[in-house]
Amino acid sequence: xxxxxxxxxxxxxxxxxxxxxxxxxxxxxxxxxLIIVLALWEFARMAGLSGGIMLTYLAGSSxxxxxxxxxxxxxxxxxxxxxxxVWLVLAPLWLRKRWPIPRGVPAMLLGWLLMFPAWxxxxxxxxxxxxxxxxxxxxxxxxxxxxxxxxxxxGKTFGKHKLAPSISPGKSWEGVVGAVIGVAGYVWLVNxxxxxxxxxxxxxxxxxxLGLTAVSVVGDLLESWFKRSAGIKDSSSLLPGHGxxxxxxxxxxxxLAVSHxxxxxxx
Length: 267
What we know:
With 267 residues, the chain is mainly α. It is 78% helix and 3% strand.
């Protein structure tokens, strides 16, 4: 399984890097929407949407995204603040209450609340095909990847105390500690390299990054709970060794949305 995961990652990473640094803005918008709409499709499958309803939902979502892009629509800080409520209030409450994944119209609305802010964040962090914004977005995404890898290996090596056994039995508090240590070192490095391009001292940047690490854990657990509620192991089988697209970006959509909302509110 680990070998398959690595091979898939080695195939996908060059594609992502090529999109970040060589795609013009419209191509980047389309590429990033493809990632989001695949995750939205997987979420909708978990929520029981199918057939014509599923097709209409995905087509309508894609139409909204196209209209937003070509009209130059940019959500303001008030609209993006909804992301903070979703990830800092609603998602933790959802995990605490163990609410089942919704069905019908509520599922469609929740899917939009989860996915659209992440797509707008993809666009806002990388509004052009410049190396500066490409490295900045890569640094933000890399934080999630480092947290994921560090948590995986720390959990495998030292994991004894379960984080949320009724939601995701494989995750441990030792994994969370590994993620925190990994992210702290990573943020120090990319900030020193100038990739983040954020005018904050390291003493403020590190706590912010660790807070986003907590958000990434919430995003991961929320998707795990949705899968458990739906009675499935993976969101799909699109990515060998990884499951589905939503399995791979569950933490990323949370971190992208929250980081962009914070940047809009406090920039």
